[in-house]
Specification:
By secondary structure, this protein is of the alpha/beta class. It contains 17 helices and twelve strands. Helix 1 runs antiparallel to helix 7. It is elongated, with a radius of gyration of 28 Å.
Length: about 525
């Protein structure tokens, strides 16, 4: 027997460590299950944090980085501890404690976000790091238990490594394609926590140590109860958003659709011509100035939300055909169940990605394209590029216009880059916004917020648009030509190969947007 490794060249040699009753199938199940669980926690954490940190590249990068740190830390510490302590004694605690933390995560994060927001990133990091590290430690522990001979080291390590990778893939696919579309975030995490505690109990079956398992079961139950009363819950959890529908206390028929903490749409279910948000009134002003009153249009909408503009067009321009690309089927259900969307209104909503939806629209078939798709407070980057705008231009007829809503703050770097991109694609571009934001009031401080851009190959009529803006009481102004060139400055073009939207964007508090 080798005194260095403690392993023999024969699986039956005297002094070989026993595997403590951990058979190959049990070992595979443990490695597969814990690897899958780590990825479930990682993906669901992104959904859980979106209402508070936004669904941005930075948030995704942070969560992925913490999850990878947990995997590395757990694997390293699990291997070291397994060489010093009987790994069989550590499996159940690793499963049970991680299950308890996972079950408590929804209540912990929502409560922290409401009562101690400065601590949110720290608490979020711990709710990913702790269970991720504990679950990742299971693989080296199981590997230690299964290694009984130098002759089979490669086979055992390779097999368990492969099983762990397959488990991670399974967890990713299961969460992304099945769990998120059928269960709430809270339900997923409490269910996973329950499964991990049950796994802990099964591992301890032969030792009859039920005190710890019972305590952890109570923790999971407490997590479920706490999640029910924790602040920040959703009316509906869709595949992409935590959604709430808020009744307007000053208008009985008014409803605000809130997605991940951001006010996305306002709908008056009795009067679709009532437009609450300033940016929506600005877009309506552009449309009314560009087309004869009452003329039906063929419109395509990138992003649906509460369908404020399609409803407005249906009411003010009877016969208008609005095709809407909305990626979130849950939002479409909210439109029907909560916001009074009725069939046969000339509004055809397709559950699809906006860029892919554009490809299905015939060339020259649209009078109007409206860009109002958002993930959190940013436009999805692939809808901002020269290539995307070229496709928008393709579907418009020769007199068609593209109107887009943007949100930016600070230096407005993203908005300037998008204006430069539109100018690269269309003959005529105009910018609408608060005077301080669009460079017309140098003495005022630009606070940012919503901006509306208008692009077409036909000349626009700035004076008509300004009159429509004034008539609706927006307080907004319009800039074109040299003034717009000066405002854009040296902003870069956004392309499919280079579109750092999240880096250019400077978001503000979600409650202040839209």
């Amino acid at each position: 027997m080798s005194r260095v490794t403690g392993l023999s060249s024969s699986p039956v040699a005297e002094g070989t460590p026993r595997n403590y009753g951990l058979g190959p199938r049990v070992a595979a199940v443990l490695v597969f299950g814990t690897s899958a669980a780590v990825l479930v926690v990682e993906i669901v954490a992104l959904r859980l944090l979106a209402p508070y940190l936004g669904l941005t590249l930075e948030t995704s990068t942070m969560v992925i980085g913490i999850a990878l740190t947990a995997i590395a830390l757990g694997s390293w510490l699990g291997g070291r501890i397994a060489d010093q302590v009987n790994p069989r004694r550590l499996l159940a605690p690793s499963l049970g404690v991680s299950g308890a933390v996972v079950a408590l995560t929804p209540a912990a994060l929502r409560t922290t976000a409401e009562w101690a927001p400065a601590m949110l990133v720290l608490i979020a990091s711990m709710t990913i790091l702790v269970p991720g590290a504990l679950l990742s430690a299971v693989t080296p522990m199981v590997t230690k238990l299964r290694l009984t001979s130098l002759a089979e080291t490669g086979t055992v390590v390779g097999r368990l490594s492969g099983v762990g990778t397959v488990g991670a893939i399974f967890g990713t696919v299961l969460t992304g394609f099945v769990l998120v579309s059928r269960l709430s975030v809270t339900g997923i995490l409490i269910g996973l926590g329950t499964l991990l505690v049950v796994g802990s109990a099964l591992v301890e079956w032969r030792t009859r140590r039920w005190i710890g398992t019972t305590a952890l079961t109570l923790v999971v139950m407490a997590g479920g109860l706490a999640a029910m009363v924790a602040p920040g819950g959703c009316d509906v959890e869709t595949r992409y958003h935590c959604a709430r529908v808020v009744v307007d206390p000053d208008r009985d028929s008014g409803r605000t659709l809130v997605l991940d903490g951001v006010r996305h749409s306002y709908v008056d279910m009795d009067d679709p011509t009532f437009l609450e948000f300033t940016y929506v009134r600005a877009i309506a002003s552009v449309i009314d100035a560009a087309f004869p009153e009452g003329e039906p249009l063929a419109a395509h909408h990138l992003g649906g939300g509460g369908l404020s503009l399609p409803r407005y067009l249906a009411a003010t321009r009877p016969g208008t055909r609005s095709l809407v690309s909305e990626i979130d089927s849950g939002v479409v259900r909210i439109d029907r169940d909560y916001l009074g969307l009725r069939p046969r209104t000339g509004i055809d909503v397709r559950v699809e990605d906006g860029r892919l939806g554009l490809r299905r629209v015939d060339t020259g078939s649209r009078d109007l394209v409206v860009g109002d798709a958002f993930g959190g407070v940013s436009v999805p980057w692939h809808l901002t590029t020269v290539e995307a705008m070229t496709d928008v231009r393709r579907v418009l007829d020769e007199d068609g216009i593209y109107v887009a809503n943007l949100i930016d703050h600070g230096e407005l770097a993203f908005a300037r880059a998008e204006a430069a991109t539109l100018r690269e694609t269309f003959e005529h571009v105009a910018l609408l916004g608060e005077p301080a934001d669009i460079g017309l009031d140098p003495s005022a401080t630009s606070e940012g917020g919503n901006l509306v851009m208008v692009a077409s190959d036909r000349p626009n009529d700035p004076s008509a648009i300004q009159q429509a803006l004034d008539a609706r009481g927006t307080g907004w102004k319009i800039v074109t030509g040299v003034d717009l060139t000066s405002w854009i400055g040296g902003a870069p073009l956004l392309t499919d190969a280079y579109a750092p939207v999240d880096q250019l964007l400077q978001p503000s508090s979600p409650q202040n947007n839209r």
